[in-house]
Each structure stands twice: as structure tokens, then as C-alpha cells.
Amino acid sequence: MKVFFRLAYVIFALLMGVTGFAQEKPAAPKPPVFECKPIPPFDPLHWKSVEMIFEALPAIPLQQSWLPEKDSRFEPATVSIGWQPDSVWIYALMEDRDIFNPTTRMNQLQEPDMNVPGQDPERVTTVMGDVFEVLVRAANAGPYYELHVTPHNQVLQLKWLDWKDYVSTEEKPGAKNLFAAHFVNGERLFASYVQVDKAHKQWRVLMQIPARLINGTDAISLGQNWLISCSRYDRDQDVIGPILSSTSPHQKQRGRSISFHRQDKWAQLKFVD
Q1: Which of 168-172, 208-212, 231-235, 257-261 has the lowest mean pLDDT?
Q2: Under a CB-based contact definition with an 8 Å cutoff, are residues 161 and 151 in contact?
Q3: 77, 134 in Cβ contact below 8 A?
Q4: How far is it, in rounded angstroms, from Cα 91 to Cα 98?
Q5: How would residue 26 be classed by pLDDT, with cut points 50, 70 and 90?
Q6: Is-contact 175 169, C-beta < 8 A?
Q7: How far apart are alpha carbons 82 and 54 in whole angstroms?
Q8: What is the SS3 assignment for the chain?
Q9: Span 36-64, pLDDT tens digits
């Protein structure tokens, strides 16, 4: 009798495989490849010109690949990326029902308790409001940069040696104070332009990242590759916690929250003709 049941079980398992009843674990999404095309000179202060340039390029959506379904508060955003001989330009368009950020200067860090009335304005950081973020480095090796832009065009700019450098800092006691050691203060590393359109509930960011920052030279060459991840912290003033989205197909790691700094899902940015 035992042999009969074992044989029946084997036949049933085979039938499930043949007929497609067996459920296989879906493959993890691969990091995307973005073809970055050349763009002509334009006036970054003239938004109509900006639109004309970037409407001709692919609009890359920001997603929530770590969730089975999008958050109910998720709002769409896209990025388009082009290159000129000495820099990369990134154009982000974000829908947003509540556009705000409490920062008032470059590289503000410390987080306040959002539930405390009259919080100290010196104790805020960019992620306490709406933020567009770019993480970028050369494809071969080297440090990477974390660049934030807010709706008021305040910026946060940090330099990390590698992923391990970020993790080791994040996990140390008093990590938020240790982050300050990675700030790049003084001159801004990149140019940014922002337009807020509250009537249409959207805001957009234009960033210019110099080739020298990533390559160490003033030129971008065909066939060259960078690694890049564009992400968003979308925050409503009356809700605790931001809605996250990214061009990188991140997945949840067991026992860990999502980290945009994980580079295994960053896109390969290929400079093409």
C-alpha cells in the first residue's frame, strides 16, 4: 500500500509539472540598461527648450519593484537622460499632490521628531520632505556620489567609497552624525534647476552632472558606461514616512529594509551615438 501511495504521489507531481500547476519562484529582475543619447546645447533656464530636448528621449518610469502591488499613495514619475561632451543631463518629472521640503540650506542632516510642534529648523534633512535622488559612479570602479535635490533646489551631496562604506556607516552607533563625514561641502558638485507647478500638482528637476566628477576627465566617450540609480522620496506633510520609488528594480532583503545604495540593481548607463 505504501508503494502505491508513493507511486501515486510521483505521478501527481509529474502531472503538475507538465500541466503548469507547479509554481516556480519568479526570477529576480535584472538591472536595466539605459542608452544615453547625445543632446544639443540648450538653455536650462528656459523650460520650453528643456521640454523639447527631453521629450525626444525615452521616459524611464520610477517603480516599486519590491512591492507586490504599488502603494495606494504612489504617484508617477519619470526620468530622461542625455549627454553632452562634458556632462550628463537628467530630467525628472514628478506628479505630487503635496509638494514640500523643510530644508533651508545645503547638506542639512539631522532628523527632527515630526510630531513635535515648533521643531528646530536646524534639525532637518532632505528626506523629511520631497526629494529627487541620484546615485552614480563609473562602471569599472571607484567611489560613488549621492545627490539630492528638493523642490526649493536645496541639495545634499555625499561621497561614498563603496557599498560597504555606506553600510558600515549606517550600522554604527550615532550613524546620522557619522554621515556628515561623507558630505562634500563648499562648492556644489553639480548644477540643478527646479520648477514647481502646484496648479498641475507636479514638480520637475533638471540636473547636470559633470563628466569630471565621475570620470576624472572633462570628456564623455562613446562606449563608456556609468552605473546610475534615480529614486524619489515622496512625502505628504500629514503622513509619517515617504513613498519610495526608483528606476532600479530593488528587492527586499531578508531582515532588511529597502536600500537604494545596493548597487547590484543599478542601471548600466551606456553612452551611444
Answers
A1: 168-172
A2: no
A3: no
A4: 20
A5: low
A6: yes
A7: 8
A8: CHHHHHHHHHHHHHHHHHHCCCCCCCCCCCCCEEEEEECCCCCCCCHHHHHHHHCCCCCEECECCCCCCCCCCCCCEEEEEEEECCEEEEEEEEECCCCCCCCCCCCCCCCCCCCCCCCCCCCCCHHHCCEEEEEEEECCCCCEEEEEECCCCCEEEEEECCHHHHHHHHCCCCHHHHHHHHECCCCCCCEEEEEEECCCCEEEEEEEEEHHHHHCCCCCCCCCEEEEEEEEEECCCCCCCCEEEECCCCCCCCCCCCCCCCHHHCEEEEECC
A9: 999 999 999 999 999 999 999 999 999 99
- The pTM (predicted TM-score) of the whole model is 0.84
Spell out the residues 6+ positions from residue 195 whose beta carbon is closer than 8 angstroms to its own.
47, 203, 204
Q: Which residue has the higher pLDDT, 89 or 124?
A: 89
The greatest distance separating any two alpha carbons of the chain, rounded to the nearest whole angstrom, comes to: 82
Q: What is the pLDDT of residues 102-130, one digit of tens each?
A: 999 998 865 444 444 444 444 456 778 99
User: Is-contact 163 184, C-beta < 8 A?
Assistant: no
Cell digits of residue 231 = 529614486
* Rounded Cα–Cα distance for residues 40 and 101 (Å): 33
Please enumerate in sequence order all residues whose Cβ is within 8 A of that of 234, keeping only pairs 6 or more positions apart, or say none.
73, 74, 75, 77, 94, 96, 130, 242, 243, 244, 245
